[in-house]
Amino acid sequence: MHTGTIRQILLITDGCSNQGEDPIKVSSMIAQKGIAVNVIGVLDDDQTEEPVGLSEVNDIANSGNGISRIVYADVLSETVQTVTRQAMTQTIQGFVSKELSQIFGQETNEEDLPPETRGEVQKVVEDLGETVNLQVLILVDTSASMQHKMEAVKDAIDDFILSLQARTGDHYYSIYQFPARNQVVKELLPWTNDGKRVNKVFPKLAAGGITPTGAALKQTVKAFQNVPSSEEWRDDSDDIIDSSYGSSY
Amino acid sequence: MTSSIHPTVRLTSQQRLEGIWNKRTYTIVRLIGEGARGSIYLARIGNRYVALKISQDSSVISAEVNVLKEFKKVQGPPLGPLLLDVDDAYISHDLKLAFYVMEYIDGVPVSDWVKREGLSWLFPISFQLLKKLHKIHQLGYIYGDLKPDNILIDRKTKQARLVDVGGVTALGRAIREYTTWFDRGYWRLGDRRADVTYDLFAFAVCLLSLDPHVTIHNTKERDIYKVLNQAKSLKPLTPILKKALSGQYNNALELKSELGVINRKQLQPTKSNRKTATNPKIDFWPEALGLSSIILVHAGLFYFLFYRI
Ligand SMILES: Nc1ncnc2c1ncn2[C@@H]1O[C@H](COP(=O)(O)OP(=O)(O)OP(=O)(O)O)[C@@H](O)[C@H]1O
Ligand SMILES: [Mg+2]
């Protein structure tokens, strides 16, 4: 099967942006480039579920064709997994439903198919989900309030890499932090598929300062131009799956 | 579909679901389970009780149905709940959702069962589970999300049943669904690619978690062997559990047969067993052995007397 590439940004943050560009606008611009924006809002232990400031989390993901979730730090690991997988599936489903309408010659919703056919479609979606190439840029909010959550973030990313490595398809991931000294975002780890490199990155994380989420998102998009290409990672396969189709759901 | 990833669905008791394709009507009785992928209801059709799984995310339904269909092909004791129907229904005038219907298993979660009936039940339960796991492996899958919550003991037949096929994964692929404590990746003892040893690792952690001395949820260090040391009631099984945790069993039947050896040893009131006061057997059967061992010892004595006279 010919596989393509799915591109995602995973933003891990604990609150509202307070400076610069509107992150919701930025994220819809990113979605138009075929990159889905997923957001995980991390709650403090004493916070009630879904406080007002975090509603932005859902809005950013919505306009970014991504998935969002607001959780306590202790379930961050599972959440990173789920969010990434669901967003990937959503993108693939968008792609498959476009293919379906080509086959059936009209606007076809997967939901309108009889259960048996849907079961067959599901198998195709799963095959793609397993084999497609995946590029995930992890953007970590390191503003002061995130300080005591960093251990959980590190664990979650560590764990996430393990899941990436289990897939048949290729993957590349990179890690960015924001804000950083004298710059909006800072690259902590360039694109790699080496799972061991995460550990070397994390001691560098230092929390502090403001939260320019919109600007940070905008900056990280450029990074997708620098994904290394390898034998199995040819550019010509890149447009087979376009994340922007995810919006049809 | 929205970006919400809480696929649970609220239905009310007495609500009727009318299948669009197959035209069967189900009456909701009550909620029996809710998880990360959907909601499970006890429902009635005619005078039969069934379990109905419904989700906001239709792909959850399709995926699990695909697995249940595979499982249905296998002869012998069922590997999962039997699939009865797959359909869509309007749960309100404008919301159509996918659901599937399966056999309702009137059972007790294995942890409650063992607490009530004693640890000695771990043997028959393990044998049944390992046989099922082996068949799943032969089909080319692994169960994946093995944990006590997903193991029910049928009240009537007292057989162990696996529910929740959300984690079932084709061999060689990335595990679809797992739970932290039962995942070898979490303990840094292996990858998350589906192979037989993944299930057997989870199986061993299941047994560990059923030992009353074990506090798996409070372990800060990720060292499963420390947890193994806590499991005082499972002492006789330590070597076997250790092997399973370190991926040394190539198939479920190997593990099963080694458990069988221990089981037979436990049941034999041999001379040496009666002599050594600190035999691990004693603390392995805190409640259950009470009666059965007395019977066995007596049976042994009778046997002895009868044939000598
Ligand atoms: N066929 C069945 N008969 C009786 N009880 C069932 C059946 N299927 C599921 N249950 C009960 O419902 C609970 C939840 O079901 P299930 O695990 O399939 O949901 P889930 O959404 O996959 O949850 P999670 O992802 O949290 O495991 C089970 O733990 C079990 O107690
Ligand atoms: Mg379950």
UniProtKB/TrEMBL annotation, chain A:
SUPFAM superfamilies: vWA-like. It holds the Pfam family VWA_2. InterPro entries: VWF_A, vWFA_dom_sf. Residues 228-249 are annotated as: Disordered. Residues 1-92, 135-241 form the VWFA domain. Coiled coil: none annotated. This is VWA domain-containing protein. It comes from Piscibacillus salipiscarius.
